[in-house]
Amino acid sequence: MQGYWLAIVLTFLIAALIPGLLIFLSTILGPKRLTPEKALPFECGMDPSGPARERFPIKFYLVAVLFLVFDVEVVFFYPWAVLYKKLAIFGLLEMMVFTLFVGLALLYAWKEGVLEWR
Amino acid sequence: MFIDVAITLLKIAFVFGLVLNIAGILGWAERKQSAVMQDRIGANRADILGLRLFGLFHPIADIVKVITKEDWIPPGGDKFLHTLAPFLALFTALAVFAVIPFGDTLHIAGRDIPLVIADLNVGILFVIAFGSLGIYSVVLAGWSSDNKYSLLGSMRAAAQVISYELALALSVVGVIMAYGSVELDDIARAQGQYVLGIIPYWGVIAQPLGFLIFFAAAMAETKRTPFDLPECESEIIGYFTEYSGFKFLAFWMGEFIEVIAVAGVVTTLYFGGWQVPFIDSQGFFVPGLFTIPLPHLLVVVIQVTAFILKVCFFCWFMLLVRWTLPRFRYDQLMGFGWKFLLPLAFLNVILSGVIFMSFEG
Amino acid sequence: MELIQFYIVAAITISSAVSVIMQGRVMYSILSLIVTLLSVAWIYAILNASFLAVVQVILYAGAIVVLFVFAVMMLRYEEIEPQRMRTGLIGCLGLLVALFFIFELILSSATGPFVEEATLSADFGSIKSVGAILYTQYLVPLELASILLLVAVVGAALFSKRG
Hints:
The structure holds three protein chains of three kinds. Chain B is mainly alpha-helical. Chain B is built from twelve helices and seven strands. Chain B has helices spanning 2-37, 58-67, 79-95, 124-133, 135-143, 148-179, 184-190, 203-206, 208-221, 245-270, 296-324, 330-360, and strands at 106-108, 111-113, 194-195, 199-200, 279-280, 283-286, 290-293. In chain B, strands 5-6-7 form a three-stranded antiparallel β-sheet, with no helix packed on it. In chain B, strand 5 (279-280) and strand 6 form a beta hairpin. The relative contact order of chain B is 0.14. Chain C folds into two domains: 1-88, Up-down Bundle (Four Helix Bundle (Hemerythrin (Met), subunit A)), CATH 1.20.120; 126-163. By secondary structure, chain C is an all-alpha fold. Chains in contact: A-B, A-C, B-C.
């Protein structure tokens, strides 16, 4: 991995430089004419009513929680997949048990209506 | 040391140059594609000295125009985060290309140059990691805009992206199982084998279901039709409503770059990467019959060209899908991700485990 | 070279960690946290643990912090801002814990065994070597982890019903 430090750092630098430079250029080159209408957020073209930070359905948060749990489980699949041929039938059975529990979790969430959007 | 830096910089210049150019052309191609499919003419006005070239100057004109537009930040919003969001959209999309191999190892002047910017030993996981970081541009854009609809839009977009990320990450597992490596370089090389002596052992042969899951999930990740609810420019307002000038374009450019990244990863994982059937380092061959030797440099050039063509094909394919399909409703979208793609991806892993095992004997 | 890199990354880690608790605005705290987690990933990468590094990015920076961000976006801005810099009992407790860790750190660095120029096997920290241990030696904890995650999903689902 050591040999690739340089390549990665250089890639990050250049990948940061391109958008950074363009955004910087656009802030310099663009005109700045603030009119009263521009002092308000655009929204739908109407004058905004009420504060912008509203409450949101808890649903979104639940999706994030489920995502976190399943993401952890998905990451466990990678080392297994790499060693799949070496671990042979035992590894496959192992992972089937693992998947069974993951599947149960998904089924439970499904049955409880976490995945429904109304 | 110095020569290594120079080679790396050359590779970065080649890849990023190519990516940014294709992204620009995609902007034009999308307008032309939609025009063709809707029986219109499409972008054709921009000209240099009367030369129009089917409107190919439009990307250049767009960039010039957009950079000289007023860069407006909503007064109630957060200046720093508002600028950071489009920056992140481009950065995370560009950084992915560090690990995508675009050719076989090049032997030149006694050096072995792998044609990939950084051949990391985590390979595809690097792509997934940066894909998952891309969510912050969406979230920050909505948060910093001081606009409730933008905030709601970014929430929906973020929920969509994380939902489909699971199926995306899981569908890759099948490919890793088939080739026994996470390194994209190894995966591309392993696809040079042949099944039954004549069919190239590409990812799509080993993982047909995995490919479909990956492609669907990846299209959702890039937030394109039929999964373009976060943006749907023709209906509601999305998370980058409060953006103008170049920052607005940055989100679109980021999207196009993501499209190219998806095309690149799909090509590498499922369509042989830089492999051309029946051409290997020895030259052109017909299996079991004869071989026509080709010079090394020519083979590398053919392979790099093949990779670029494959990437362009998938970019175009995604444009085609975009202008063919209508978009989902939000509950359908989340349902499709969680109740269909994710279980299918789990099933795919177990099924391919059993199938590979039974083939191994 | 490696040492310079380590010091730079460590400095970024610590200063961004300090920034997490010192920031006045929640979103900036979260951004600082992301920087901290990413630079910790970079430290893992310096230590040749490439798989751990990338998992750190995927899980911590890409999933756990997303949860935080969602939580922040759920709340009304004004409701959370004023309470943030509250000191008092919790602050004192935090300081105590921090002091304890600093003490531990000094103690262990003064007495602990050190290996100069440790030799690593070629594939140390790679996804293969991690998997080879995980799926043989630590098989039972792995399966238990899947049950734990099942419990987490059940908890989340119940929590949605209450709400």
